[in-house]
Amino acid sequence: MQPVALRSRKPRAPRIDHEGVEQMALIRWLYGEEQRGEAVGAFYQVIYHVPNGGQRNKKTAADLKRQGVKSGVSDLVVMEGRGGWLGLYLEFKATPPKHAATAASQREWLEKADHRGYCAVLARGLEEAKAVLREYASWERTMPSECME
Prior knowledge:
This protein is an alpha+beta fold. It has 5 helices and 4 strands.
């Protein structure tokens, strides 16, 4: 029997999380806008990321599900009402063509948020997300008494 010839395999290029890189740039941009005193920069204090994505082992995934993690929840939430909305749910995707498809559960979550009084938006890329946040910042603040009606 002849020995099998070994072939060297080219190492795979590391996977680049284009969405994560752009989302980090968005948060850095908000921080810079806050430092300059720009209106949109005020969102830096009230925006947060919902870490639903990523690879996890089965036990961790099951534990997180029991703790309330839900499929499809938007990536970023702005905890400030504007334009009569209670807040903003922003589903963030990388700039095409490096973006991932929007899952049905993500589209459903945006619809749920919209029906419950939240502004719910899908932004494809850093520049589109900046435009969404600038526009949202331009609207009048929703006062808490408006939410109680």
